[in-house]
Design a protein that fits this description.
This protein has 123 residues and is α/β, with parallel strands linked by helices. It is built from two helices and seven strands. A four-stranded mixed β-sheet has the order 1-5-4-2, with no helix packed on it.
Length: 123
């Protein structure tokens, strides 16, 4: 039984080393993309023309549902901002984390759903 555990540990260690080596061989463009995901866990701003739809935030709005990869224009009290939900792992957060400082979104919560087809193929 101990030999099986030892063999499993050796195989897992070899796989970890291989994965680590492969990750280090990523080109600079991919490294920049990955590091931007760490810096922007909620997505990024986007030009208004890129918006796929507009969501109006009112004083009674408690939450919004969006899809990962979706670009949404938010309209709040006559002001607007557009957001690209190019996220990899932050499915729920307060909109105040992404709204410009001069736009009061209150305590609105954003729920980011995975689309039917997810280009990242992550789970």
């Amino acid at each position: 039984m101990n030999q099986i555990k030892l063999a499993t540990i050796i195989v897992l260690g070899a796989l970890s080393a291989t994965v680590g080596t492969t990750a280090m061989a990523v080109d600079k463009e991919t490294q920049a993309l990955l590091s931007s995901r760490v810096k922007e866990p909620f997505g990024t701003t986007a030009p208004e023309a890129a918006a796929q739809r507009t969501i109006t935030i009112t004083p009674t709005t408690k939450y919004v549902n969006v899809e990962r990869w979706e670009v949404v224009r938010f309209l709040v009290d006559g002001k607007s901002f557009t957001w690209n939900f190019y996220t990899l792992g932050t499915p729920i957060f307060e909109m105040a984390a992404i709204a410009p400082k001069d736009i009061n979104v209150g305590k609105v919560v954003v729920y980011v759903q995975k689309p039917y087809f997810d280009p990242t193929l992550d789970s």
